Amino acid sequence: MYIIDRFEGDWAIIETDNRATFNLPRSVLTADLKEGDVIHVLVSLDSEATLQRSKNAKSLLENFFDQ
């Protein structure tokens, strides 16, 4: 369970059911959320974006060492 504990500027302070906290950018939350609301957090892998970033990094390294 994740509860919006409070907002601090551009950040939402989220509290877990074991009382730990972490910050989320307010921009990733819907505007109608308020302190005390229980939220669900879903994290998913974007394989295509990961592969593209890996290719870009490899290309940068190859270009750097070729110079």
Write a structural description.
The structure is a single chain. With about 70 residues, this protein is an alpha+beta fold. It is built from 1 helix and 4 strands. Strands 3-2-1-4 form a 4-stranded antiparallel sheet, with no helix packed on it. The radius of gyration is 18 Å and the shape is elongated. The N and C termini lie far apart (about 50 Å). The mean pLDDT is about 95.
Describe the structure concisely for a colleague.
This protein is α+β, with helices and mostly antiparallel strands and 67 residues long.
Give the overall silhouette: elongated
Note poorly predicted spans. Answer: none
Helical proportion, percent range: 25-40%
Mean pLDDT value: 94
Q: What gyration radius follows from the Cα positions, in whole Å?
A: 18 Å
Order of helices and strands: EEEEH
Per DSSP, what share of the residues sits in E-state strands of 2 or more residues?
25-35%
The largest β sheet comes out as: 4 strands, antiparallel
**Cross-sheet strand order for the largest sheet:** 3-2-1-4
Number of strands: 4
Oligomer: single chain
Distance between the termini: 52 Å
Judged by helices, strands and strand pairing, the structural class is: alpha+beta
What is the count of helical runs? 1
What key phrases describe this protein's structure?
67 residues; alpha+beta; four-stranded antiparallel sheet; 4 strands
Fold blueprint:
Blueprint: E1 2-8, E2 11-16, E3 21-25, E4 38-39, H1 47-66
